[in-house]
Design goal:
- By secondary structure, this protein is mainly alpha-helical.
- It folds into 2 domains: about 100 residues, no CATH class; about 70 residues, no CATH class.
- About 75% of the residues lie in helices and about 0% in strands.
- It has 9 helices and no strands.
- Helix 5 packs antiparallel against helix 6.
Length: about 200
């Protein structure tokens, strides 16, 4: 889930990127370990909603961050109800939804450059064992850029598929998306090579 940074002066915007990433990890682990019933899921959801309010993130923006995972959660919910119980389905899907929401909140209140700088600094000590923090930072930057780029490719291909009357054909969606994604990856690789990224 890669949200677009929304400038602001809320306490969450002013918090250092490293602290937010650490709190995100702690929050997700805590929710996974200690949330056991639908009531606790509701409490955690209220806390997450309060954090969005504290950051002054509009409701429509918050919902847009969660919409892409709805279908996945529905599939997981059905699977959980079949093998466990409805209550367990609520807990599993609720924790996943809250985790995605908190991750989206971090990206909405943190500049990508600040996040990448934090990761690069954190990986600094690993230089001694051969890890290149700058290369890892570049990889993360490319991943962040490619998520919305791939989303745009899928959207464009889906529109073209509907215009040809093939909206129910998965082949008409998957094949063009794969071809365009591979062409885009080749172009990005050529651009990086031209800038000497692979030079020792």
């Amino acid at each position: 889930m890669i949200g677009l940074y929304r400038p602001g002066d809320s306490p969450l915007h002013r918090m250092p990127a490293g602290a937010k990433l650490l709190l995100l990890i702690v929050s997700i682990v805590t929710a996974t370990v200690f949330v056991h019933n639908p009531l606790e899921v509701g409490v955690a959801g209220v806390v997450a909603a309060g954090l969005f309010a504290l950051a002054r993130i509009p409701f429509t923006v918050a919902v847009a961050q969660l919409r892409p995972v709805v279908w996945m959660l529905l599939i997981i919910a059905v699977f959980q109800m079949l093998i466990t119980s409805p209550a367990r389905a609520v807990v599993v899907c609720g924790v996943l939804l809250i985790s995605v929401a908190l991750a989206a909140l971090v990206t909405l209140t943190t500049r990508v450059t600040d996040m990448l700088d934090t990761v690069t600094r954190a990986l600094g000590p690993l230089r001694k064992v051969g890890v290149d923090p700058d290369r890892v930072g570049l990889m993360l930057a490319l991943a962040i850029r490619c998520v919305p780029l791939l989303t745009e490719i899928v959207h464009d291909v889906a529109q073209a598929r509907r215009a040809r009357g093939l909206q129910w054909s998965m082949t008409a969606l998957a094949t063009p998306v794969l071809v365009r994604a591979l062409r885009t990856a080749d172009a990005m690789g050529d651009a990086l090579a031209a800038r000497g990224v692979d030079d020792d």
